[in-house]
């Protein structure tokens, strides 16, 4: 995909996270689009894959330039920190899916749980804000974010 588009991470998210739809259908024995669409497109798929893989892609920028492939790291360059918005969209879509699923806990939306959403968004943005886009620093941020 990197030879075709600057957005290979979006394709990765769509391909890898098909299990969200299958898992929901297997457990609930239905496909509730009000839950599946925000969950698949935002929380687990496109947005989250873009957040972590754009940071990871900065480690490969020099090699991508040498071999002539595209990536969002090359596309965004120093503007990469705008992915905080994708992190916020990820958490917001997770909250929307929980709300649409009528979960008892009203995950991330009702008081006092609304603080969970705020804390999660602050955490993701807090990881991205101080990020320096050098290779070794990106690897450290990615490890902190995922583990």
From TrEMBL:
The organism's superkingdom is given as Eukaryota
Q: Provide the transmembrane region boundaries.
A: 7-27, 33-56
Give me any GO biological process, just one: ubiquinone biosynthetic process
Q: List, alphabetically, the InterPro entries matched.
A: Prenyltransferase, UbiA_prenyltransferase, UbiA_sf
Q: Which GO terms describe its cellular component?
A: mitochondrial inner membrane
Signal peptide region:
none
Quote one Gene Ontology molecular function term.
transferase activity, transferring alkyl or aryl (other than methyl) groups
Topology in the lipid bilayer: Multi-pass membrane protein
Location in or out of the cell = Membrane
Annotated keywords: Membrane, Transferase, Transmembrane, Transmembrane helix
Required cofactor(s):
Mg(2+)
Q: Which family is it part of? A: Belongs to the UbiA prenyltransferase family.
* Protein name in UniProt: 4-hydroxybenzoate polyprenyltransferase, mitochondrial
Source species of the chain: Dichanthelium oligosanthes
Traced from the root, the source organism's taxonomic lineage reads: Eukaryota, Viridiplantae, Streptophyta, Embryophyta, Tracheophyta
